[in-house]
Amino acid sequence: MTKFRLFGSTSKEVSKREIEHRALARWVAAEGMVLLKNDNVLPFQESNIALYGAGARMTVRGGTGSGDMQERFSVTIEQGLINVGYKLVAPRWLDRFDHQYAEEKENWRQGIEERIKVYPPWKVQQMFDEVIHVTPLKFPIGDKIQYEDLSSETDTAIYVVARQAGESADRRLEPGDYLLSEVERDNIEILSKNYKNFLLVINSGGLTDLSCLNGYQNLGAILYFVQGGEEGGNAFADLVSGAANPSGKLTTTWANCYEDYPSALEYSYLNGNLEEENYKEGIFVGYRHFDNFGIEPQFPFGFGLSYTTFSHRVMKVDVNGTSISTQVEIANTGVKYVGKEVLQLYAAKPNGKLSHEKRSLAAFAKTKLLAPGESKPLTLTFNFCDLSSYDEDQSAWILEKGEYGLFLGNSSRSIEPIAVIILDENVIKEKCVSICPLPLKLNELKTDLPSEVYSENLPRLFINSCEIESIIHKYEKPGIKSHHLLANLSDSELAELCVGGGYPASTYNITPGCAGRTSVKLQKRGIPNVNFADGPAGLNLTPQIVILRNGSSRYIESVPEAWRWGWIKKFEPLIKAKPGKGRPVYQFMTAWPCTTLQAQTWNEALIEEVGSAIGVEMLEVGVTLWLAPAMNIHRNPLCGRNFEYYSEDPLLTGKMAVAVTRGVQSHSGIGVTLKHFCCNNQEDNREHVSSNVSERALREVYLRGFYYAVTQAKPWAIMSSYNKVNGVYTANSADLLTKVLRNEWSFNGVVMTDWNSTGDGKGSHVLCTSAGNDLIMPGGRAARNALLKAMKDARLEKEDVRQCAANVLEMIFKSVVINGS
How many beta carbons lie within 10 A of that of residue 46, not counting itself? Predict the structure, then answer.
């Protein structure tokens, strides 16, 4: 075995792969942005534009934390407009904004440098906690627009509201965050009064309350930009110029006021209790809550405008066993613009023993580009059994007899009934066991809506209950996978396999900047390490570095700006590469549009292309597991990491995760890591909070997306979350990791912990292994010693350790990087 192995490119030149992936990222961003309002303002007809707002030059292309990226360069909204030929007039406000922010940032930096100068090198984590968490630099807003900031050279203006969020903190129900600030409201009013054509852009990974603008005159257009990745500015310019037609649809309901969301004022920090988060809304999350309780949203789930218009006609609804297919002809009825439309099929269940959401998404499909006057067939298909609900009394998924209505349209509030499916008898679809018992009584929201009454003119189709297979799950520990190396490993080596590592280490397979890896201490046994990379927006790696002959690294130009603090800044000359020494490694990875924006395309085929492209980059840099997709539910708009997640709807979440997983894993020897399993729906105190949720809501809402992804796409790995579920850390929950994942869903990959989620008053290292959490990340000596001691004391069965080790070993030897080792 050689000393170490490097991947990546030795050339700094832009590669063909980069160019191709930038083009795909641009298309995805344009297809995911949602046009919320348009009073004949877009596409712009003028060549001169007045541009304002924090996000114009400081365009937020992604979130912080694991969702961050270190791409070669990103295109801002300002630059994107210039790139397609617009002339930007009246730059005075933006120039002043830049100057003010530079001063603010320098004062902030000096204040932190003064505080962290006492930290020695061995307290680097505490030093960065001070930088990142104690006094973070708040994203700027800018000042009020003055008369002299306006322009007489154009009647067209854009104002870009921007927000930044990320790991470890939830957003705030405050002006300048979820709410618009007074300055922003004033600026929007000034611009809407002084420019005939005014576009408001929301550049934020999460929602922003716009209810305060309801009385504003001439608020001509609103575009939800979200976070567009490295090509976001160019994609934006494509849309506003008419080179591309908006086709994105919302994946989360926008409320008229924050209090319209369920459990709104009890979420996260708002109720003063960060130890217990009670999911009192039960299954009524997102549009289910708005529909069942008669609340009018500002913008409904699935909503999005286009520059053209569409019509659709149902041709046929078929039942084949339990498969339901709806054949539709859809036409572009406009006269000027090509475009795409998303059709959404919703189902209503009959109320019987269980009460239900009024309707839920059952299927969706997106057209190809349709020219004006062109029509094409479109088919929406789903399995009737996916409409089953969980009955806690029977510990079973059930289908109740009666009429199931099907509704078709282009948003949750723009649908019409098209057919009725009739089930003749009650069916137990799956017999399970009860999991995750509640430690307290939840007073869940109730609804007394009557069952839908359907017109006699609707077609009726019948499903014979005898055709539905009933599954009775068996609950036992999976058999240990065989591998010729497994039998010869000592207890210490078995424990070593169950403990991973972080970035700093001497490794065999080297991927600079990877977030984690398997053990590096088993190479003499013929077991090399494999590497894992964040995150949801792409591979977050060190873009350029030099690797010396001993495997250590040096920076080519300078230490990354985010690291240039305290003693590191002083030591920079010692950790920069010397000319001619070592091998340069270049890893300029694509910063893709954020996960929410990808989901807003509602285009499974396109997102599968994104997955395949990420797979190409993984192969290039020697990454075995991509630590994504993140697929927690948008339970509340204040969650700090909503930009990393797909939707408030479990079906849409699951289908998008299936698509990207299939794309990545279409390449041999690499895999994805679904995360965060499960109920990681807030960031404040995420390492200790207990998500207290009924079993029905847990299974129907928070586990359902993972179910689709696991059973339909076979991911290589799953990451347990930081939080507890009903008082038990997810990493220690045999109910979740063995009963649900292994027994009910037949998952046979690797389960790993989130980083540092065990030990130090958090989850137990030992209980992880016995519960079915195969790999403790990033591990370390304390975790390994805890496993060894527990085996010696008979508190941990060796067979449990062998089982976890076998799962990790199989993943390593499936990896593409094993070849040649």
Answer: 13
> Which residues, 6+ apart, have CB-to-CB distance to 758 below 8 Å?
729, 731, 764, 765, 768, 776, 783
pLDDT at 122: 85
pLDDT at 585: 96
Which position has the token pair 């969301």?
Answer: 261
The pLDDT score that the predictor gives to residue 243 is: 98
CB 428 within 8 A of CB 369: no
State the CB neighbour count (10 A cutoff) for residue 393: 9
Write down the pLDDT at residue 544: 95
Contacts of 214 (CB under 8 A, 6+ apart): none
> Are 632 and 67 within 8 A, CB to CB?
no
- Strands 427-431 and 396-399 turn out to be antiparallel
**Statement: residue 820 has pLDDT above 70:** no
In this structure, are residues 297 and 256 in contact, taking their beta carbons and an 8 Å threshold? yes
The DSSP element (H or E) to which 429 belongs, if any, is strand 427-431
Distance of alpha carbon 620 from alpha carbon 9, whole angstroms: 8
Structure tokens at 703: 């586990």
Whether 1 shows a pLDDT value over 80: the answer reads no
The two three-digit tokens of residue 485, written as one number: 């190396």
Cβ 552 vs Cβ 6: under 8 Å: no
- Radius of gyration (Cα) for the chain, nearest Å? 27
CB atoms within 10 A of CB 379: 14
Q: Strand, helix or coil at 658?
A: helix
800: pLDDT strictly greater than 90 = yes
Q: Is there a contact between 675 and 628 (Cβ–Cβ < 8 Å)? A: yes
Indicate the helix (H) or strand (E) that contains 327: strand 323-332
Q: Which two tokens stand for residue 27?
A: 């298309």
The values of phi and psi at residue 417, to 5°, are: -65, 140
Residue 667 pLDDT grade (very low, low, confident, very high; cuts 50, 70, 90): very high
pLDDT of 548? 92
DSSP 8-state class, residue 775: B
- Flag whether pLDDT at 60 surpasses 90: yes
The whole-number average pLDDT for the span 794-807 is: 95
Beta strands in 575-627 (DSSP E): 583-586, 623-626
Average of per-residue pLDDT across 81-91 = 97
Percent of the chain with pLDDT over 90: 86
Give the domain ranges of the chain.
Answer: 16-94+139-252, 95-138, 306-472, 486-541+593-816
Sheet arrangement for strand 623-626: 516-517, 531-533, 623-626, 671-677, 717-720, 750-752
**Helix and strand totals (H; E) in the chain:** 19, 33
Rounded Cα distance, 118 and 130, in Å: 12
How far apart (Å, rounded) are the C-alpha atoms in residues 415 and 409? 4
Domains 306-472 and 486-541+593-816 equal at CATH topology level: no
- Hey, which bits of 588-701 come out as E strands? 623-626, 671-677, 690-692
Tokens 């890896």 sit on residue? 517
Q: Which fold has domain 486-541+593-816?
A: TIM Barrel (3.20.20)
Q: Can you tell me the distance from the alpha carbon of 494 to that of 339, in angstroms, rounded to the nearest whole number?
A: 56
Query: Which helix (DSSP H) or strand (DSSP E) does residue 725 occupy?
Result: strand 724-725
Residue 552, CB-side half-sphere exposure with 13 Å CA sphere: 7
Q: Which CATH superfamily is domain 16-94+139-252 in?
A: Glycoside hydrolase family 3 C-terminal domain (3.40.50.1700)
- Termini Cα distance of the chain: 6
CA dist., res. 45 & res. 676, Å (int): 45
Beta bridge partners of 407: 346, 417
Asked if residue 271 has pLDDT above 70, the reply is yes
List alpha helices for 248-334, DSSP H.
287-292
Taking the C-alpha atoms of residue 533 and residue 151, their distance in angstroms, rounded to an integer, is 47
- Which CATH architecture does the domain made up of 306-472 adopt? Sandwich (2.60)
Q: What is the pLDDT of residue 479?
A: 80
Distance from chain centroid for Cα 151:
40
